[in-house]
Amino acid sequence: MGRPDGQILALKGISKSFPGVKALDNIDLNVARGSIHALVGENGAGKSTIIKILAGIYQPDAGTVEFDGEPRWFRKPSDSKFAGISVVHQELKLSETLSVAENIFLGNLLYKNHMVDWKTMRERSRDMLSSLEIDIDVDEAVENITVAKKQMVEICKAINHKCKLLIMDEPSATLTEKEQKVMFRTIRKLHAEGMSIIYISHRLEEVFDLADTVTVLCDGRIVDTLPTPGLTRQQLIKLMVGRELTEEYPKERFTPGETVLEVKNLTRKGVLRDISFSARRGEVLGIAGLVGSGRTEMARAILGIDRIDSGEIYYKGQPFSPGSFREAVEKGFGLIPEDRKLQGLVQISTVQENVCMVNMSAVIRLGVFQSGLEKAYGKEYVEKLNIATPSLDTEVQYLSGGNQQKVVIAKWLLQNSEVIFLDEPTRGIDVGAKAEIYMLINGLVRNGKVVIMISSELGEILGMSDRIVVMHEGRVAGELDASEATQESIISMCV
Asked: Where does a domain end: 184, 211, 241?
């Protein structure tokens, strides 16, 4: 029996602390039944902690949770799931080798005469996908379908557990614009059928497009809860960062210097074809294109991570053909990868250890590791980049996404790389932290570095690039000067 006031969820006085950090401080949050309620805030604001409390992963230190009109205490994830709460995490929780139908019913198998009823599960999976207007073969292994379709399977898996409240954490982070439209259509259909949804996203346009109500969090406290209609983007940004953010893309323009990197007809069979471009000192070269267009593969080929079949690379006018990533790094190249958690950082190592990880020669004297130097460099870059961390000895897994990204940048600053590839530099980062990353990019360019920025966000590409190379199906579809580029011109080349 639901609450008479129409609330599906009420958090009252919720607090949660971790060593050195108060993640939530006396949170009161009400979610209306049948609404799409957005949670926004800078990294570290407390959104993830709220999700984990509702999912039964964390238990609050104080306060109460009321769900569907009754007091609840979720001691473990199964308590939350059986109550009717399902979470679609940013990192999908599917079993890749199992079929679509098997994933949808994972942990919720149907039986007939003491045997698993595969036929009924397949039929119900087809019905569920059909009702959401999603075209996926239920017998296909999940590893063989696109990320967007995996997201749809995750949603079906969630609502199959008699879901009353669906929580979606950054669901569009890895999707193309076309895939996002499919997901938004699915969300709207669920909403129209009365599903209550909590939607977490750093992409503010999604909040305005989907949500009825938005709650802003900052430093573990609720700043305000407002109806989305009538709220402006600038008002929402000010609530999130606590100040006026006059420019989302604070681009500084510099006079480009000499060509440092030149790529001619770079080819990798089945992946890249005749890639040619140049990058100059003191500029940001933006690389645009849809997911799967070959942007990351191009960077990996240049950096010696993946082999190339043909083509030429020139670095400072000399032929360059690195046999490994290590060799490229030693020559002066750096990479801030697309997946900072898996490829950019060692999560269980400390901030100072990660900062010094690439340039170990900086902290070794006469073959002996100098812990004092490691601490000094860690302190220097934490201060330079304004990295918010309880201490230099804090493991980076406990930092917010924006601060983790700053640690990745710090290690390449210590390495003093001349050519730095930035692959999706602000993915999963809030609007305030994005502005800080952009200022760091300006600083790199000001100091004569070559910055090659790969991004799926057209606003970012247009706002921060000096020149833009557009890729399509492993080829360069065109090149534009930032002064003449528009969203329309880039999209037309992308497709």
From this structure: 241
